[in-house]
Amino acid sequence: MAKTKAMLLEEIYKLAFTKLVEAGSDEHNASILSTVLRNAERDGSHSHGLFRLPAYLTGLKSGKINGNARATINEITPSFVRVDGKQGLAPTAHNVAVPALVTAAQKTGVAIAAIHRCFHMAALWPEVEAIAEKGLAAIACTNYMPSVAPAGANKAFFGTNPIAFAWPRPGKTPVVYDMATAAMALGDVQVAARDGKKVPEGTGLDSDGQPTIEPSAIVKGGVLLPFGGYKGSGLSMMVELLTAGLTGETFSDETKAQDNADGGPPIGGQFLLAMSPEIIAIDDWQEHCDSFFERISGLPGEGVRLPGERRHKNRLSDAPRKINLELLEKIALF
Amino acid sequence: MAKTKAMLLEEIYKLAFTKLVEAGSDEHNASILSTVLRNAERDGSHSHGLFRLPAYLTGLKSGKINGNARATINEITPSFVRVDGKQGLAPTAHNVAVPALVTAAQKTGVAIAAIHRCFHMAALWPEVEAIAEKGLAAIACTNYMPSVAPAGANKAFFGTNPIAFAWPRPGKTPVVYDMATAAMALGDVQVAARDGKKVPEGTGLDSDGQPTIEPSAIVKGGVLLPFGGYKGSGLSMMVELLTAGLTGETFSDETKAQDNADGGPPIGGQFLLAMSPEIIAIDDWQEHCDSFFERISGLPGEGVRLPGERRHKNRLSDAPRKINLELLEKIALF
């Protein structure tokens, strides 16, 4: 087991905040970003917690990321807002995009926020969860840098291209998930490599285009595969088209070509869709869905867990979180 | 190899049309339905061609399906149309839903059509392709009857719950796919069972909840699995929530409980989303995307096929299609 240090949530927040401000972020943005990183650790989503901080700091220090960004929104139609992230990190764009999107969807039943010029390297569930907490269903996706070979190819072309979904349950915690369309999230492969673990077959190819279960062989010159073969590959292509084709931002391979290769997160687009069951559904949708969730949870077998349940359970604890010591040493060097 | 009969597309259409009218469909609806079945055979999508006709005829004869249905549309907001299928087969509802949805999305950038009270047993790509041919991106999904066990369960609960996606390429054929969120479409498992073929591991469980590669063991008392484990399971749950939770129609397990068990298609809801790159994208989206499609098609490896390419190629041929003889004998009995 890797060595860890116990840290209170408040300490995690302060560490992130201090380092972000030192690296050139203003306090407004540092506060938004530190909250997202702390919440990921709080919920047990380690690969999207402090693990991301070094890349943020790198991008801020290289000047690629604008630490003083104030994203702007442009309400083009009653159902569509265009969001310019102004070269800031994605959570600072969500801060203005989500309220505008929610307002639009609550009026017309469905709305899109298309975010461009932002740097997304955080978990994807916080934004859909925030929308679901306003009583709306949500879908989000974002692209990245080439790290996944499309079905039929042996070269990285797609990003890990996650899709997130959330369903509102007023009075209860929403059902929320995000999933990489890669067989495994790059962050999880990196964590496995760091911790000396193997990955399942079908996760990726090595630098010779051969299948491998060594995460380090995938990270160093190899390539991830989409989950579920050509189906996951189709979904990953959809993510590229929604986040680049539809937003006007760069496709993953274009992103790489223009990135400064500082190791910080790459620029990219994000697609956010919000839908109102209150407007669209005919019947008493809350009871209808509550009963659905009860039936699925009661199915025979090992047990069906509602997506997001574990995260919401982790959230209830105020206990210190175990943070990887090597990571803390790395952060201290910034 | 199963015995086949060569039939011209026109003959396929006429066979379907005649049988549908005999079973109680009016000519307007029979024409819409026969076109969809013929187009599936034309494009090489055999599991959604004449293979579906016996179930349509069964449902019409039992009185479950309304052969004279005229779906109605209700424009609730500028971006949302509610469609009542009036107990007809789904393509008769698409006939009015798609034009209304396209008009809405061309104005506001994004729109939803939520269809309820329709019987969906056709391929899912025709409706998204029709939307893409109007210059819009589209996502569609529909639920069904329980045939897939959620990750963690060993009992059928989800339908095969397909998702379809289409991306417009004005002047060229759109990129179009549909995929079951089941490891395999039930129709394909049925065809494999009929033809005495095996299916890949991970496709389903037998009646004892054990993994099997015998399609007949899955069809008879067994259960399909979602593709890609818990990820496909999450997507299948999303389809249930969009097609039942959001439309107000029945979840797959509720559908089964109220079905008359005649073997015809079950009632259900459908979710249709249309998005306008013309309104949403910033740049010259057509060139931007054309260049993306060129790059992905040129990747090293066995070769990346753009989804829908094979179908569009099949479509160019006027040659007779080979139709399973046993299927034709079955149809003749109606």
List keywords for this structure.
2 domains; alpha+beta; homodimer; three-stranded antiparallel sheet; Hypothetical Oxidoreductase Yiak, Chain: A, domain 1; Ribosomal Protein S8, Chain: A, domain 1; 13 helices; 19% strand; 334 residues; seven-stranded mixed sheet; 40% helix
Task: Tell me what you see in this structure.
- Two copies of one chain form a homodimer.
- The first copy, chain A, is α+β, with helices and mostly antiparallel strands and 334 residues long.
- Chain A folds into two domains: 4-64 and 312-332, Hypothetical Oxidoreductase Yiak, Chain: A, domain 1; 72-280, Malate/L-lactate/L-sulpholactate dehydrogenase, NADPH binding domain (Ribosomal Protein S8, Chain: A, domain 1, 2-Layer Sandwich), CATH 3.30.1370.
- Chain A is 40% helix and 19% strand.
- Chain A has 13 helices and twelve strands.
- In chain A, the strands form three sheets. A seven-stranded mixed β-sheet of chain A has the order 2-3-4-11-5-6-7, sandwiched between helices. Chain A has a three-stranded antiparallel β-sheet with strand order 9-8-10.
- In chain A, strand 6 (163-167) and strand 7 form a beta hairpin.
- In chain A, helix 1 (9-22) packs antiparallel against helix 2.
- The model of chain A has no long low-confidence stretch (mean pLDDT 94).
- At the A-B interface, strand 4, strand 7, helix 8, helix 10 and helix 11 of A face strand 4, strand 7, helix 8, helix 10 and helix 11 of B.
What series of H and E elements makes up the topology of chain A?
A: EHHHEEHEHEEEHEEHEHHEHHHEH
Oligomer: homodimer
Largest interface, C-beta closer than 8 angstroms, per-chain residues: A-B, 69 and 69 residues
Find the CATH topology of the largest domain in chain A: Ribosomal Protein S8, Chain: A, domain 1
Radius of gyration of chain A: 20 Å
Low-pLDDT residue spans of chain A: none
CATH homologous superfamily annotation of the largest domain in chain A:
Malate/L-lactate/L-sulpholactate dehydrogenase, NADPH binding domain
- Return the CATH class of the largest domain in chain A: Alpha Beta
The number of helical segments of chain A is 13
**Total domains of chain A:** 2
Main sheet makeup of chain A: 7 strands, mixed
